[in-house]
Amino acid sequence: MAGSDKKRKHGDFHPQSAKKVHRDDPYSRKHHRSEGPVSDGLPHLPSISEEYWNIVFTHPSQAPQDPQASYDRLEFLGDAYLELYATQLIFNRFPDFEVGKMSQLRETLVRNETIGQYASLYGLDKQLKNYKQFQNSPGHVWLKIKGDVFEAYVAAVVLSSPDGADTAKRWLHELWEPKVQAVATSTTPKPKKTKEELAKKILMKGTKINYVDEKAPVVHYGQGREEYFVGVYFNGFAWENQYLGSGRGSSRVEAGLFAAAEALKNPLVDQIAREKTKALARREKYAEAVKDKGVQKEHDFGRANAEVVEPASVTESRESQASAEAPPAKQLQGSHVVV
Q1: Which residues lie in Basic and acidic residues bias regions (predicted)?
Q2: Are residues 168 and 82 in contact, defined by beta-carbon separation less than 8 angstroms?
Q3: pLDDT (tens digit, 9 = 90+) per residue, 288-317?
């Protein structure tokens, strides 16, 4: 009779009687296991040691004088394990995510709305002592209690066997997989180097690209994330503060990348690029003309110098030659001419 009462109390949890108990396995005598998923699509619920059973399902108000007798301490430990396992899953699964986006996804996996739902699906909330009393609490209070029970259960899984940490990790990763997969398939890949591409296409000396906050960032409280809104504008040629595109993202940098990606799709950017090509051609032509003019000036200057120097030399040479060939000068002595 006592065994039946215990079975009814624990719901789907049953003593492990099918396997032989080994004396060198102190954990095997104390485990309670579920015989399968409580709900379709849920992974198998790991067992916990009997010594933690009452603790996991005892609200702190039911043991105010003994912190070891309620789930309060286990909930504290389980919360840390949930954060750790969620962080590891996201870090390995999404190598291109920025920290802000990783924090956002982690918050989705570990928040009370998520783990409280898991507690209900597995029926853990109904295992709580006097659960109907707490079920009639305000919605947010009852949600927090269900989340605490789930966190305490996670801690109990970790503590119930030598490989409890690995068991809990595998279980939670499998449990979170649908949510993670949804993010993986719905997340727009973050564009890379779009700012560099846009600059290469339309930027040159005398032009400028500006990335401007179009409105203040939106903080999504309780979700651990912010959202930024950035527009990209162009100044140059015949355009002044010309709008090219907008973007939004979990950081200002990411929003700017999305804005540049949108700008690259704008036909106006192709028109600006053509103007850039024309301007570069004119600049090159002008540079060549200046270069050619400079060479011509140098040539003309050299010729002018030659014309100035050469006549003087020739004159001096001719004077020397004439002096050498001239007859002796006539000298006057008195009234006679001496030759």
Answers
A1: 291-302
A2: no
A3: 888 877 666 665 655 555 554 445 544 455
